[in-house]
Prior knowledge:
By secondary structure, the protein is of the alpha/beta class. It has 14 helices and 9 strands.
Amino acid sequence: MMRFGVEFVPEEPVEKIVNLASLADSLDFDNVWITDHYNNRSVYIVLSKIAEKTSQITLGPGVTNPYTVNPAETASTIATLDNISDGRAVLGIGPGDKTTLNSLGIEWDKPLTRTKEAIEVIERLLAGEEVQCEQMDKHDMKRAKLNFEFKGDIPIYIGAQGPNMLKMAGENGDGVLVNASHPKDFHFAIDRIEEGIEEANRSIEDVDITAYTSFSVAEETEKAKKAVLPPVAFIVASVNEKILERHGISFEKAEEIQKHLDGGDYGEAFASVTDDMVDAFALYGTPEECVRKIKELEDSGVTQLVSGSPIGPNKEEAIRMISEEIIPSF
Ligand code: F42
């Protein structure tokens, strides 16, 4: 069965996000994910407020990284979030956003290895072990151990796009958060995830394959589409050539958008987004159109749909529409 999640970016005021998360909680969404970038508001402060104001929804960072936060610190924080939310915490972790890390002077060395090892450290700490990691490449714990009571089995979701990361996520994750909106990308991703699942002798049911989409729903298609132009412009400017090729998008047009964004000319960048770009990198439309597109993702093997930014021209209305006009079809 398809699960439904919603993502918020804490560039918006905490109060606003908490109110929207509380609405999603009351409307039976399964998950709320908060993105993590140091230049936005603090992910865990937002999550702890959400924990107070919600009662059934699962909540977590989507995603933290092992560069700006030591994995022992992540284990402690997620266990604390689990304490205060009566067992509703999930951990989303990935290698981190390269551009953001660059601006902090952090080198993205061996991002896959560092993420994989961090997950091992976190899992062992959450199992109550004292962790020493002399054999690890990127971490060097001597005698790390958590010193309070917590429930150990917090699900770990791995943010992954690249072939190796997807495979690693299939081997190690309780879920995979794939930043994509189109079935073509999921055919590619799920093949890689399955390789990992096989290698680890696991089964596909063990892994919640999550479409972390750029989402927009409205009563009119055009209104929904207009709201996704900004995120799609940023996606087009940052994805690699192979992904553009997969969707038949011209590299030159993508470069043009990148130049406009780099020059701070956002109006021009958003106006240059073409229909094939929007169709490739966003899930948008009327509730009926969204249902049809989500069913295509479900057929390709997706098990959780996360409505990510913008969600719709009006976030609150969009959350109500998802609950009333989309979720009942699944
Ligand atoms: N990043 C953030 O900073 N904050 C967020 O809130 C956030 C949310 C989010 C949600 C979903 C999602 O899927 C990603 C999200 N991200 C977020 C981005 C995330 O942190 C990563 O930047 C993103 O997922 C990119 O990951 P990727 O899967 O493309 O992996 C990178 C590291 C990559 O290059 N992978 C390659 C691959 O094939 O998978 C190669 C990796 C590899 O094998 N590396 C080797 C190693 O050991 O690390 C080294 C290889 C060598 O040659 O040295």
